[in-house]
Amino acid sequence: MSGRHLAIEVIVPGRCAQYWHQVLLERLAAAGHAVAVVTDEVADPWPAWVNGTLGLERRLFRRRAQALASQIEPLVSGTRHVAPNLGVDLSGNASVQDVPTLALRCDGAYDVHVLPALVAAGRLPVLEVVLDGVNVVGRAWPMIDRREAVSLGVEDVLARAITLLVSAVETFAANRLNPHEDIATDQTEHQFLPAYLTCALPRLGREAWRRLRFRQAHWRVGYRFHDGPGVVDTGRLGTGWRVLMDAGDRFYADPFVFHWQGRVFLFVEDYPHAAGKAVISVVPFSASGVPQAARVILEEPHHLSYPQVFDWEGSIWMLPEASASGKLTLYRAEDFPDRWRAEAVLVEGEISDATLLAHGGRLWLFATDRDGFGSTSDTLVIFEAEALTGPWRPHRLNPILIDRRSARPGGAFVRDCVGRLLMPVQDGTLGYGGGLGLSELLALDSDTVQFSPPIPVLTDGDWPYPRIHTLNRSGPLEVIDGIVPIRRPLRENSAS
């Protein structure tokens, strides 16, 4: 939260304001800042063929909500401040102002005109906020969820531009700005039309052909009983994995293990393809380590996944992801493992893969927050509380980071053989489910959060599906999941 409210002048293109500019103004005003708009009449609008192509794509993908890149009427908000505290330059000119000014940079360019061409060429842009044209004071690596569509990729990047700029303003207001080291970015220039014709259209065609032949997503869970050092200790999958098989009309993912009364229970996201949403199921293991039939133990009107099960103060709890409901709900076991009761709503919002940690005499939740627009996988937030049922308060440094490579948790915290506290994190560089890393928690309290850069988990060994996104272990039972190419049934293709 900010230490003070500011008088902010936001410089916007006068002839080519976009919807994301309006959203940013609304977010800054909602945070309590006095916002005035100053128009820059020099900036040119995006070329008509760019806007037309993006609009055509959105119709093709049936996106009815207003696009962040859509052009809107010129913005007018209040009168120019006599003595502003801060400027925010969205014009692309990065001109020198009389007051401290933040400007947005996209892969080194002070102009988001470059964004459609970068996304069309298959680039994953880096966003930066630069203070007075000199110091980089904020940086983001946005996730692009749907890389086959340029319009959707542009949406994801602009969404995180809003998040990054709001965070930079709040950090400035709290006097916490710290310059970042410069990083090298690819300075190759791309033109939209050639990039779209040579890169984006073939990519879109390949994806359309893949979806005709294969299901959009199908995951499988792997398990092994292993007494020695595991994946967290070695940094590689290794051997001994077995597949928890499914019938093909559903998949299992997001495995979590829980031991109770000498028995082993595996909790999974259970996704019947025909239903279009998942339930939570349990797979009991026999005494000899054989998985039994899965059975549904929790179903809601919305999608459920990531069933983190744990014991706390004499009860057994589950904290599944339910971002589609707009809230994070805690469940208590009434008759383990089959009956669960909603106990409390911990956090409001599109919170994904919330992962619990008891540390330093407090409870912490690590999760990603969609922040209204864009991807669900690139913006890490943390909440803290004294009691499990709350109240839960956002960490003052939220968002902790915006990074497709390390923001989204991929399993429960675990200590390795040398005592490091590690969190599995999803790496979205290759897309959702592209891989896992292990990031060490170096410092955590109400004022500080520090992680090490993630070390990628090597997928060598006998697990056949290297695109993994969850890792957990309880005792000798270690579990992972991986995405699998499954052909569509012929009747499904004919129906579509």
UniProtKB/TrEMBL annotation:
Name this polypeptide is given: Glucosamine inositolphosphorylceramide transferase 1 N-terminal domain-containing protein
Superkingdom field: Bacteria
Keyword annotations: Carbohydrate metabolism, Plasmid, Polysaccharide degradation, Xylan degradation
Transmembrane helix among keywords: no
Alphabetical list of PANTHER family matching this protein: ENDO-1,4-BETA-XYLANASE, PUTATIVE (AFU_ORTHOLOGUE AFUA_2G04480)-RELATED
Annotated ranges, domain Glucosamine inositolphosphorylceramide transferase 1 N-terminal: 249-438
Pfam family, one: GINT1_N
Entry keyword Protein transport: no
